Amino acid sequence: MKSSPPTLTMAVAVVAIAALTSCGTSGDDEPAAGGPVTLSFLTGSDQSTVDTSKALADAFMKVNPDIKIEIENQPGGSEGDNVIKTRLSTGEMSDVFWYNSGSLLQALNPAQTMVDLTGDPVLADVQPDYLPVVSQGGRAFGVPATTLAGGGILYNRKVYERLGLRVPRTWDEFMANNEKIKAADITPVISTFKDTWTSQLFVLSDFYNVQAATPNFAADYTAGKAKFATTPAAIGGFQHLADVHARDFMNKGFGSAVLDQGLKMLIEGAGAHYPMLTTLLPAQLENYPQTATDVGFFGLPGADAAKHGATVWEPAALYIAKTTEHLDAAKKFLAFVASPAGTDAVTAAVRPSGPYRIKGSKLPEDALQVAKDLQVYIDQGATAPALEFLSPIKGPSLEQITVAVGSGLTPPAEGAAQYDQDVEKQAKQLGLTGW
Amino acid sequence: MTKHARPPTRNKSPYPYWLYLPAGAVFLLIFLVPTGLAFYFSLTRWTLFDSTFVGLDNFRDFLAEQNLRVGFQNTLFYAVVTSGLKVVLGLGLGVLLTGRMRLRGFLRAVVFFPVLVSTVAVGITFSALLRPDTGLVNKALAVVGVSGPDWLGDATTALLSVGLVDVWAGVGLATVIYIAGILSIPTDYYQAVAVDGGTAWHRFRHVTLPLSWPATYSVIILSLIGGLRSFEFVWTMTRGGPGFSSDVIASIIYKQYQAGFFGLSTAGNVLLFLIVTALVLPLNHFLGKRQVT
Question: Is B153 on the interface with A (CB under 8 A)?
Fold first, then answer.
């Protein structure tokens, strides 16, 4: 074909011109100062995040009628990470956005892309020990948007009651309980490896035990001096995964089961234990009201009963993009979120699954059982934040490695060594010193 | 193109060159520039916010990727199995659907139908059909007393299951290519076989099979390239799992992109491009030569 039909060339030209001109028309019209302001607010798309965001926005608009908040939803997980990164780097970010705290925040280059809130009255009501997880280089950038979560074992209390079991404080007690549960024809440990991230909990929520045995692990690990494979306590999580599989304590079809199936099994009592985060429970209340009372929480048991505790996940945060044109309104919104009035608004919409990180906020009487169980650990001072809140490095392949170890495809020591390599790759990509 | 009886002057285009400009600009802007940039960014550590030049580090890191060997084996296995099955099944269906039979048009449409469905939709549908407890496949097997495995959740069957779904979705195209190839064989040959008293097997073995070689060649090349680049089915059905057992090169690259290793995943793409070229060019040459004879 030597020549293209002229109409085609014309069409291409028209499309090209249209594409080029449309670039110039973005950017909203500036509102007059003092007039009504519209804030854009980008948030996640899972049920509890959506409900929380909506409750916060609605309550805020009620007391600030001249500020309108428009909510935008986006997918979670690494797909969402890339949306956020792209929008921040191209200057197309909404005024306010919801994002993880801890290691994931570090990859967003907050100093360049977000408004620095250090010393700002916005942070007045935030518990000071929360700030490190929303900070980089000593500057703080966000306020907690939801509650603290416990990561460990969610268990069905009805099953425990019926079989006369006691909450285990060591791994051996846990495995002994599993034996009895299996004998009663109930799945001892629910595993849902199709949603690969759910396989990581045995390793991630074992961190309280790692830290109890080797207090300097987080710092040494960040500096490249401590490894999972060479720290006996750190291999523990991988070993647990392998043990549970070897003893055949998992549900049938664990390789293609998903999170929702797992939660359903747990709540209905078809399974007794589910290594999981407490935050996933409030969304189940609508279909299964018994979630509030039947599901309890305990920290992943370790070797020593005297050192039993729980690993906790710090709440995600709200941040202000540096490109915002409504800084005052955005700060006003964040100050509301980080106040007892804000947490009350959330409590009215989503029953909390853990305590808030705001001074003066209390757990309501009808909080979920898991929140009450978690509060006990907090009151005893027996909690540690997950490793991803103490170190910027979290290897991206952990979820595949834990699936492989938990399915008996990779021995635990080899899995730990693979994860060390994965971590090394991440540290190099972050350009950390010492790697 | 054949030369017409025109004076041997320079071929004058009937349109002025500037008419190519808009199309050229689009091609430059959305294809050539990004391709050039990809080669550059594969040499950097790139966070989307800034990039630092690191030389060939990304290529070294990519080649040191622990599951790369598994990924390569899986990719080759997947490409060979799917393209082999597409050749065998496509040829069989092609012969069947060019023969005299009732409902031929309808059956041709049925065989071609899966090609029209979006691959992602096929992947999601089959992950539901292949579920171990509630999936239709295992329920059907249970009726005849067979307890089916966890097709996609078991490391030993995951990749093969994905490959079979790929064959189901792609065999229609191979069949159409074969139908066209078989119909283009002159009927004289079949008549000659009939005169010699040959059976249906002789017709197939000595006429259809050798003379549909151009079709076989197209099917092999198309499905092999498709198999080497396979991604949608793997990603929608297993995401490379369980563990790393059904990872292919493309899913490894995609996971690195997801992890935010943009420079590293770009380096992987550059390598994949080189590998596919290195495999397909000689194959193309070799198969093309046989076609001429």
Answer: yes
